[in-house]
Predict the structure of Rhodanese-like domain-containing protein.
Amino acid sequence: MTNPAIPEIPVSELPSDAVLLDVREADEWAAGHAPSAVHVPMSALAERLDDLPEGDPIYVICRSGGRSARVTSYLNTHGWNAVNVAGGMSAWALSGGAMVAQGPAAPEVL
């Protein structure tokens, strides 16, 4: 069930020029992420607000949508225009979204 106070968009409706903020942890990011995404783990968000990508809105993504919903709520409360990506990287991968990994392994969603 989604929270109506948190703006959300399905992967299928993301604009082609969407500014993605990936808030998963380092091991998840390394295993596979969207090529154009910016990585700021949720656990480091408060200390790394200056590292947020410039975009209006910023589309926030995690593995399944839970952490990104919390980050979206936080950012919107603090003056950003953020939108949660429903289903996260799991939905991204299922929809055939491009992914890259760090290292020789094929990209995957952890």
Summary: The two ends are 22 Å apart (CA to CA).
